Amino acid sequence: xxxxxxxxxxxxxxxxxxxxxxxxxxxxxxxxxxxxxxxxxxxxxxxxxxxxxxxxxxxxxxxxxxxxxxxxxxxxxxxxxxxxxxxxxxxxxxxxxxxxxxxxxxxxxxxxxxxxxxxxxxxxxxxxxxxxxxxxxxxxxxxxxxxxxxxxxxxxxxxxxxxxxxxxxxxxxxxxxxxxxxxxxxxxxxxxxxxxxxxxxxxxxxxxxxxxxxxxxxxxxxxxxxxxxxxxxxxxxxxxxxxxxxxxxxxxxxxxxxxxxxxxxxxxxxxxxxxxxxxxxxxxxxxxxxxxxxxxxxxxxxxxxxxxxxxxxxxxxxxxx
Amino acid sequence: xxxxxxxxxxxxxxxxxxxxxxxxxxxxxxxxxxxxxxxxxxxxxxxxxxxxxxxxxxxxxxxxxxxxxxxxxxxxxxxxxxxxxxxxxxxxxxxxxxxxxxxxxxxxxxxxxxxxxxxxxxxxxxxxxxxxxxxxxxxxxxxxxxxxxxxxxxxxxxxxxxxxxxxxxxxxxxxxxxxxxxxxxxxxxxxxxxxxxxxxxxxxxxxxxxxxxxxxxxxxxxxxxxxxxxxxxxxxxxxxxxxxxxxxxxxxxxxxxxxxxxxxxxxxxxxxxxxxxxxxxxxxxxxxxxxxxxxxxxxxxxxxxxxxxxxxxxxxxxxxxxx
Lengths: 321, 323
Ligand SMILES: Cc1ncc(C[n+]2csc(CCOP(=O)(O)OP(=O)(O)O)c2C)c(N)n1
Ligand SMILES: [Mg+2]
What we know:
The complex is a heterodimer of chains A (321) and B (323).
Chain A: E1 3-5, H1 6-20, E2 24-28, H2 42-46, E3 51-53, H3 58-70, E4 74-78, H4 84-87, H5 89-96, H6 99-102, E5 112-118, H7 133-139, E6 142-144, H8 149-161, E7 166-171, E8 178-180, E9 193-196, E10 201-205, H9 209-220, E11 226-230, E12 233-235, H10 239-249, E13 252-259, H11 264-275, E14 283-287, H12 297-302, H13 307-318
Parallel strand pairs in A: 2-3, 2-4, 4-5, 5-7, 6-7, 10-11, 10-13, 13-14
Antiparallel strand pairs in A: 1-8, 6-12, 9-11
Chain B: H1 6-28, H2 43-51, E1 58-60, H3 66-71, H4 76-83, H5 117-130, E2 137-142, H6 149-160, E3 165-171, E4 174-175, E5 178-179, H7 180-183, H8 188-193, E6 198-203, H9 207-224, E7 228-233, H10 254-261, H11 265-270, H12 275-298
Parallel strand pairs in B: 1-2, 2-3, 3-7, 6-7
Antiparallel strand pairs in B: 4-5
Helix pairs in contact in B: 1-2, 1-12, 2-9, 4-12, 5-6
The structure holds thiamine diphosphate and magnesium ion (MG).
């Protein structure tokens, strides 16, 4: 079976959608030469009108995309670094997201915001290592964090076809992954995936952390039977899928690369405990409150949610009952 | 270039004037909640600019946006209903004064974030021209907006990518209470000129002058695709926002206000009509607004159960606040 890399999956999704729909076009910095690699070969195939390099004007080109979308175009805006989302939070949340309701349904804003390389990039330090997906979930903007090459392809395709704005976080820690994928297909937004079934505890893992959760589940096999649930889309969240899993296992751990306060892990736990009587108090493994990733690799790792803390959390929720 | 029909120009400034006066009454009576940013005194700009536009051209307005929406051709009755938060409003009562939009007549929306409209209308015009449509756009903005970085970025994109957007700066001398002299380094048209955008200044109190200057700009823009910038000097006759009717803010002297009000676009446009024509327009405008107010107040208020309707175009439904 052919092996598909995560980056190549994003590239293929862009190429397929550009080919399928004339209204799709790309905007971003250094995308003609594909500095991030996800737009490789697209300039040659689709030309500079549809693969548009922008000046360093994130706020203007984000709202330019909104304007184009209001007329029926489907722009994909690439951001070189996740922190740029802070610059354009206003343009996405205050305009793109609010226009349909504020106009009483007169318009749609089908823009995709793509961050190929979110979260820690080891050595890129404080201003290049953010993972602000919970912010967009909080604002009610459709937010996806694909963990695998197949999901990277399938969720990006669905994001581009969605009539609402969608933010696609492609974690830096997942970009080098490869997987056997014969024929990638669209993956519906808002649908989670059980990567591994288990009986004792549900571990909800976001993005690249799915692979850490699977590794820990493997290690613990024999002692604890771990189910790994990947929501894939954080907003809208697949509550039915998760509640089904937790109903089977009765225990919950969430591993989430957000800062702790108001991160998606808190929302997952709150929603589950509102509806399910768990057999043990749930746990979450996150970045610390207010985290700024320090430069030195050991420090960077120290504030990211990792396998050791995940093992501890699993031990905690399974130790009695 | 043919001049605009003086009757049409007068009708538009008169309609906006009386619309705003009726709206202020409805603010006072509590039928419009949240107040409005009255366009009183600035009517000549929207009237002159929009008279030079074609129906399929698009405009993006501001928080002081009623004039732009009306001049572009929205139904005053549905606009009034919107201000009153009724289901028959342009935005079905979901937008109100600061977000009134009518995509059917090319109004991409008033926008309550100062400086935000420029990039949006630039993207809209670019996308439609890419499909072969021959349209132009107008971004209305205040003097306060020229200090917003996002707008300057939009100037750059429009100039660089040759998107024919006319940026119309309504310089009424103040951003809320901040005088232009204390806020703008250099000159306002020079902001645009720095990006290679053709820029000029016009008397915003004279709708015919605004129309003539706009028509000339649009002809150049339709020919070469480049954006332009027009500073319209004007004066806001009333409050920044109706909250000022209750809270006196001390930033304009009575003498300055009297001087500003002495150049009234409605009087200037009206002086170009015979008394008979003027009376006929006035009577027509009164009838239109009488009906608009009556219809707005008779219309239903939206059902609270539909508060999140239109939040998502994709059909997604949001979780409610629980309980
Ligand atoms: C980005 C932004 N900053 C501040 C405000 C609050 N505000 C609303 S209107 C206004 C003044 C705008 O002045 P100007 O652009 O000159 O327009 P005018 O009110 O004079 O028509 C301010 C500060 C806002 N809505 N948006
Ligand atoms: Mg002003």
